[in-house]
Amino acid sequence: HVQLVESGGGSVPAGGSLRLSCAASAYTYSWNLMGWLRQAPGKEREGVARIYSDGRTWYADSVKGRFTISKDNAKNTLYLEMSSLKPEDGAVYYCAAQVFPCKVADVGSFDYWGQGTQVTVS
After folding, report:
1. Run of H or E residues at 44
2. Cα gap 12→66, rounded to integer Å
3. In 3-state terms, what secondary structure has residue 108?
């Protein structure tokens, strides 16, 4: 069974930076996409960023210009570089993977999920 394990979360002052990692227990090079989603207290889970197998990326408007998603297929690892962090960025961040192409990339379309890593911005 495929596992995704996030790491790199923590507490950081507003304006600071963090790098999240997501290690997969399987080859990721052929997966359609991998992405990061987050869920803040009292809010629905929302997509943050995603990267497709061809290298295309997508970012939520709220993080565009501040976050960068990348993937190292050789290491089967997904990354999220976060900078200029704001208090509203505080959330549990999840990585997720969609193996086969799908018409949508909503929460219900992902095949694998990590258990999340907490990011707190003060």
Report:
1. none
2. 15
3. helix
Strands (E), the chain: 4-7, 10-12, 18-24, 33-39, 46-52, 57-59, 67-72, 77-82, 91-98, 112-113, 117-121
Asked whether the predicted pLDDT for residue 101 surpasses 90, the reply is: no
d(CA 91, CA 118): 6
CB 67 within 8 A of CB 82: yes
Among 12-16, 37-41, 46-50, 106-110, name the one with the lowest average pLDDT. Answer: 106-110
Residue 54 has what DSSP assignment? Answer: T
Average pLDDT over residues 100-116: 89
